[in-house]
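seq:
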Amino acid sequence: MKIQAFPMKRAVIGAAIFTSLTLAGCATEGSFSAADGGTGSASRGTDVSSGGRSTGPSGVTSGDSTGEGSTATVSPALQTLDSTAGGTGSLLSTSGNLVSSVGDAVAAVAIPGMDSGVTSGLGGVLQNTGSALGALGDSTAGGLGQMGAAADPVGTTLSGVPPAVQSLGAAVSSAGTTVSSLDSGALSVLQPATDPAGALVQRVGDTVSSLGTRMGDGMNSGVVTQITRTSSTVITPIAETVVATTQDAGAATGTGQPVSGLLGQVGLAVEGVGGSIATSNTPVVSETGNLIGAAGTAVGGLGGIVSTPGGGSGPGALGGLTGGGLGSGSIGGVLAPVLGAVGGLTAGSTGGGLLAPAAPVVAGLTGSATGGTGGALAPV
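struct:
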């Protein structure tokens, strides 16, 4: 019996070794299959069976069948959409900064014989309104402004709504503070009316803020996320097709490049004005310059709707309007008087220009831009 056992043991051991080698081979093959195209698939959330190539918007590729990621390319139409929406978002954000800056200045003002809650409340209304605009601007720039790359541009854009609603609620509450504070000094006779009215307005503001909080919680739910992602996959190609159609129409009619060139020139001119004002380093004034500059950027970005980006920057048929450029010595055409007037208004930072007489007034309000502490708005 012992002599017969040895062949049986050898057979069992041999079968075990064969099985182990087979399983090891399968595991090795499986690991290579996962690696093949795995990088591209993970980056866009697609299945390995798709070969690792993303199934995102047209013109965007985030991986190939070898699993090596490639540089994302965005179609000209999506570039235009990103530029236009990004410019709109920047315009909203800079508007919010300006409104908030004005609110800071108002909140710091002290009116003799009146409770400080009046001005602080008014300032709070402006500050919180500015925050709402900023939230919408940031989400728009990060969502629709990244249509060619963002996985869920619609969801990212809508994510700015809840904080904007919260800020608007806070603005209403600040208005309630102002109403409640009107019963000081000579207006103390109004106390029986202002106190309950102010409290009511504050409660309304708190309710609106609470609504914004609940909206934020809802935006984070899986159902809403799925809806926004689905909406993004539907909206992105449609918007891309529409813009591509307008670009093709502009190229076919020959009007796309001239119009784009004109908008680009005007946008650069407006940006230049805004940049000159922004360098004042003066509260409110600097934010105004930033807003003007953002408006110029937005205007310049509109040219891509009728002309493919990179299709040429010459003035084309409308070159006579701008004289072919905005550089030194090149300004001419119909817009030359406008651009010249702008130069006369700003005239650099060393003095001169039509706005020069306003410099002492601004300095008196804010103090010296080089470190002075005087001025009515110095506390700001």
